[in-house]
C-alpha cells in the first residue's frame, strides 16, 4: 500500500474514533515521561540519503529511499535501508563494496527526512496541507500545525482529535486548534508523540 493509501486508511480508522474523544490530552509533564528515547535516527521510505565513499567519487551519490525501503547505488542494485541508522547502512554498503574497492570507507548522511511511519505525526482532514510529518524531539501541536499550514476555512478546529497508539487500540483526546491558532491560547499547545494522528473535522455549518 502506498503512502497516500496508508494516510487515507489512517484517516478512515481515526475518524471513526473522533466521536468518542471526550478527554483532554495528558499534561505536558506526563507526556514527557512517556516519550520514547530515540537517540539514533532510523531511515524511512522516501528519505533522501547522501552516500560518500572515501577516495572513490564514482561511488559517491545522493539517492532516494524507494517506497519498498530499498536503495540502488553504483554496483549495488538493491539494499535494504529502511529501519537502519545511517551508520548501520554505511557498514552495509562497505560490505557490499569490498568486492570492488579495497577497504572502503563509507559515510551516510540523511539530507531529506520522512522517517519510518512510527516516527511520523500524520494530519488528516481540514488542514491546508494534510500530510505525514517527521517527528522531532519535543514537538508540539503548534509545530505540527505550522508544518501543515494551519486550518482551512471549513475546519472545526475545536472538534479536532488526537489519536494515539496502535490501530485497534488507540486512545483519543480532544485538541482545541481554534483556541490555539485563532485565539492564541497557549494552553491548547499540547505535546505530540511519534505515531500520533491528528484528525480535523469539517464544520457542521
Short structural description:
The chain is α+β, with helices and mostly antiparallel strands.
Detailed description of the structure:
- With 205 residues, the protein is an alpha+beta fold.
- The chain is 23% helix and 24% strand.
- The protein has five helices and ten strands; from the N terminus they run H-H-E-E-E-E-H-E-E-E-H-E-E-H-E.
- It has a five-stranded mixed β-sheet, with helices on one face. It has a three-stranded antiparallel β-sheet with strand order 2-1-5, with helices on one face. Strands 3-4 form a two-stranded antiparallel ribbon.
- The longest helix has 16 residues.
- The N terminus is likely disordered.
Blueprint of the fold:
Elements: H1 3-18, H2 28-34, E1 48-53, E2 61-64, E3 70-73, E4 76-80, H3 86-97, E5 106-112, E6 120-125, E7 132-134, H4 141-147, E8 160-164, E9 171-175, H5 177-181, E10 197-200
Parallel strand pairs: 6-10
Antiparallel strand pairs: 1-2, 1-5, 3-4, 6-7, 8-9, 8-10
Offer a few descriptive terms.
single chain, alpha+beta, 3-stranded antiparallel sheet
Q: What is the SS-derived class?
A: alpha+beta
What is the overall silhouette?
elongated
- What is the makeup of the main sheet? 5 strands, mixed
Strand order of the largest sheet: 7-6-10-8-9
Instruction: Compute the average pLDDT.
Output: 82
Task: Report the count of strand segments.
Answer: 10
H and E string: HHEEEEHEEEHEEHE
Strand content: 15-25%
The tally of helices reads: 5
Radius of gyration over C-alpha positions, nearest whole angstrom: 20 Å
Unreliable residue runs:
3-15, 27-38
- Helix fraction by DSSP (H/I, runs of at least 4): 10-25%
Terminal Cα span? 34 Å
